Amino acid sequence: MASRHWLYFGGFVITGILLVGAGLMGIVDGLSALSGGVPASEEFILITMLGAAAEWVLIVLVLGVITATFLVATIVSVLRTTSLPRDDRLVSIVEWLEREYPLLRRFNVSETVEPTTEDRRRQLKKQYVEGEISDAEFERKMDQLVDGTNSKSRSRSGTTIEIDESSR
Fold first, then answer.
1. Which of 13, 107, 123, 150 is 20 to 30 A off residue 51, Cα-Cα?
2. Could you report the per-residue pLDDT of 101-137, keeping only the tens digit for each?
3. Transmembrane ranges (predicted)?
4. CB 53 within 8 Å of CB 26
5. Is 19 helix (H, G, I), strand (E, B) or coil?
């Protein structure tokens, strides 16, 4: 069975083709109305063309809505199945978007893209193995990571309250 996003994409392509065809038929129908003898003023020409192609305009509007719906459904379907990378830079961008557009907070994307402790440990080990950081820096960052994990779990459980001394 085909996946859902391929079905949505197929619907988008088919309705898109029908949309273009209906638009072209409307243009041809509107232009053919000019051959019937229209008064020379611009208003009458436009009204005559729109009157001849009125049903095509309605069909194009309906197909446009259906095409847009299939496009949105395709995008949502693909994004739901796609694995998002976990990165601190991406977290900062997503958090900024969530501050700017509060509606996005409902999707909890910032929590989804935030690196886990295990991701951070893997990254530190990779940097250490590749020689990007020294032994002392690796140990210091690993200790910070472990301390950060413990303080987060304690503050979430409500047993400790951390006070920033620099803000006093």
1. 13
2. 888 777 777 777 778 888 888 888 888 899 888 889 9
3. 7-28, 56-79
4. yes
5. helix
